[in-house]
Amino acid sequence: MSAVDLARLQFAATTGIHWLFVILTMGLVPLVAVLHTRAAYTRDPAKRAARERMTRFWGQLYVINYAVGIVTGLVMEFQFGLSWSGLGKFAGNVFGAPLALETLIAFFAESTFLGMWIFGWGRLRRGVHTTLIWLVALTAYVSAYWIMVANGFMQHPVGYEVRDGTAYLTDFGALLTNSSALVALGHVALGALTTGGVFVAGISCYHCARGARETELFRGSLRLGLWVSAVASFFVVVVGELQMPVLERTQPMKAAVLEGSGVAEERARLVAEHGPGDWVPWQDTVRISMDAMTLIGNTVSTVTLLALFLLWKDRLVRWRPLAYLMTAMVPLPFLASVGGWVVREAGRQPWLVYGELTVDDALSHVSRASLAVSCAVFVAVFVALTAVNWTLIVRFARRGPGATQLGATEPLGGGEVPPMSVVAL
Q1: DSSP state, 217?
Q2: How many whole angstroms separate alpha carbon 235 and alpha carbon 187?
Q3: Gap between the Cα atoms of 261 and 206, Å rounded
Q4: Dist CA 59 CA 55 (whole Å)
Q5: DSSP state for residue 333 in the 8-state scheme
């Protein structure tokens, strides 16, 4: 493999694996926030205790995924300077601000709010404690917005001018309202909510099918997960279709590949504009990824909608094969999201900044041997972190609320003792 291929493989593998953490984090935290709010403002002590156990159980799974995922995120920023210095030289004046804001929000604001929420059980007033988890959810989506702004510039550069081979920001508003970023952000947010909903519904079905003692807890979680995933999976398909007009306007080659027509004409236009070169992305890869994402998305939408009707008279819970089918569906939204990521990133090749900077021109002056070593190390570390993450999630998910450690502290003296105090399980 060439140095370019190794650098691309390294970045594709690390960003793809990191994305699996991100989509579950974004999808799960709003559900935890909803559960926490319901628990905090429930008057009946028995219902409040059950809803608190529900919040702590799902909150712990969220914290595990976030904690391990944040480690994978640390590597992403460094790769731009290590392997893709050409991107910084050309677009650093435009590209750097969104990345810096995302780092400040994700690694400082979001982490701070989450830490306060984790250690605030039994110590903070219920209003303050509830606000913290909503702030965690808000900063997660704000962080995603800044990432999409940066990625949107790479997909469809706007609000800039090139002077002496360097891009300079001229219209910050155009950068913030880039259609390539905003429509994609809606698609990503709905995909994340679908992932979180299916995750909650699948684990809840697993415990209900096994006749767990916390049946009512998991039935409540199942209803929430199904409603969220059914609604989100329907609209994620709708918003996904809204991206095609944007692609036809901003990335006609990708649109031509997906539609299966006009590729030769678009190739001829690019050759005339940019000179000889291979301006066509990997057509089979893009099409297969698109087909897989579409098939999985429609399947999840159909199954979750049918599962909502089966909640009547507990048919979904009583018919164990159906319950285990919901559990088996947990990986599907992750696979669909990876397919969408491949379409978005591979479909713009060979451009790094579409129409302005190619991948070859952006590569740092790094030896092939160095890239081979770093690629092997990074991929191995990321795979190990993924294995650790899902081992912990599966272990705590199977053990149920009885093994939950989040919030397992006694309230401190002084001040109001909130109704979110720990309940012995």
Answers
A1: H
A2: 8
A3: 45
A4: 6
A5: H
Sequence-ordered alpha helix ranges (H) in 156-282:
172-176, 179-209, 215-250, 252-259, 263-274
Residue found under tokens 């809803």: 51
Please state, as a whole number, how many other Cβ atoms lie within 10 Å of the Cβ of residue 398. Answer: 12
* Lowest-pLDDT range of 96-105, 261-270, 401-410: 401-410
Q: Can the peptide bond before residue 350 be classed as cis, meaning omega within 30 degrees of 0?
A: yes
Whether 281 and 348 have beta carbons less than 8 Å apart is answered as yes
Look at the block and give the residue holding tokens 């004046």. Answer: 93
The pTM score is 0.91
DSSP state of 108: I
For 57-83, letters b (16+ CB in 10 Å) and e give bbbbbbbbbbebbbebbebbeebbebb
CA separation for the pair 16, 301 (Å, rounded): 23
pLDDT of residue 409: 55
**From the CA atom positions of the chain, what is the Rg in Å?**
23
State how far the alpha carbon of 71 is from the alpha carbons of 17, 65, 68, 74, in Å: 12, 10, 6, 5
238, with CB counted inside 10 A (0-12, 13-18, 19+), is exposed
Cβ–Cβ < 8 Å for 8, 21: no
Residue type, 154: M
Which single residue is written with the structure tokens 């088996």?
Answer: 328
- The residue ranges of DSSP E strands in 272-396, in sequence order, are 351-353, 357-358
Query: Virtual CA dihedral for 365, 369, 372, 373, nearest 10 degrees?
Result: -110
Residues 6+ apart with CB under 8 A from 284: none
User: What φ, ψ does residue 400 adopt, rounded to 5°?
Assistant: 80, -170
SS3 168: strand
Amino acid at 121: W
Mean pLDDT of 264-270: 92
Given a contact cutoff of 8 angstroms between Cβ atoms, the answer to whether 39 and 420 are in contact is yes
In the chain, the percentage of residues whose pLDDT exceeds 90 is 70
Q: Where are the domains of the chain?
A: 3-251+282-403
